[in-house]
Structures are given as C-alpha cells and as structure tokens.
Specification:
five-stranded mixed β-sheet; 36% helix; alpha/beta; globular; 4 helices; 5 strands; Transcription Regulator spoIIAA; 131 residues
C-alpha cells in the first residue's frame, strides 16, 4: 500500500491491466487532502517504470472539481515537467467534455499523447494508449 492510498476518496480506485495504469473516479466532490492524494497517485503512476500508459475513467463521476482542486491540478503541472511522458486517455460521459479536453490537449501541443474519448475502455482507446 502506498502512502497516498489511505487518503484517497472512497470514490477513487486504481489498478493495473498489463502496462496500463487505470484510475477511476466516481465523484469529483473531494476534499483538498483527497485531491492531493489523487495528485500523488498520478505522479506514482507516471513514475512507475512498468506503466506504459494511463487511463483516467471519469465516465461515472458525479459533480465537478472544486476551484481548490482545479488550482491544485493547474499547479501540479510545474511538478511534472521532469517526469517521463506517457500516453494518457480520459474516458468521459459527455461529447462536450471530450471535445473540451481534446481542444486543450491540441492547444498545448500534447494531442499525440493525451486524448479524451466519449466511450468505454474499448479497442480504439487501447490502440491509442499502446501504439
């Protein structure tokens, strides 16, 4: 068990399927401490040498990240600059959210390794992550 596991919200789970590290959120209503634990989980997944790609499954997530949590994510990019680049797919339950994430990826020049899908974890998602 990692140090962040006990602080993760009960609505966030994680596991590995082969070389893909999967994080599933069932709710975006989390405390700042829980958000910090999620950030540690993400860093752990990125640093894990046996992980080739990350899958963030938000298809069942309810609510929205709070302003505090969004600020945590924005500030977190400074802490990930020297981490290895791994492909990341985000599963959404909304075509609009998918388009927004893909627009942000494109505007940041990272669309080759970060993409959103309005689908379940299917062959298209798997192909993106592992090719």
């Amino acid at each position: 068990m990692s140090t962040f596991d006990s602080r993760l919200p009960k609505t966030t789970t994680h596991w590995k399927e082969g070389q893909i590290f999967i994080i599933k959120h069932d709710s975006f209503r989390v405390t700042l401490e829980e958000g910090q634990a999620i950030a540690e989980l993400l860093r752990y997944a990125i640093e894990d040498r046996s992980t080739k790609a990350l899958l963030i499954n938000n298809r069942q997530a309810k609510g929205a990240w709070s302003k505090e949590i969004n600020e945590l994510w924005e500030g977190g990019s400074n802490n990930t600059e020297n981490l290895p680049v791994k492909k990341m797919a985000t599963l959404t339950n909304s075509a609009i959210t998918t388009m927004q994430i893909n627009r942000i990826s494109k505007s940041n020049g990272i669309e080759a390794w970060s993409k959103a899908f309005n689908s379940e974890f299917n062959d298209e998602v798997r192909d993106f992550l592992l090719k």
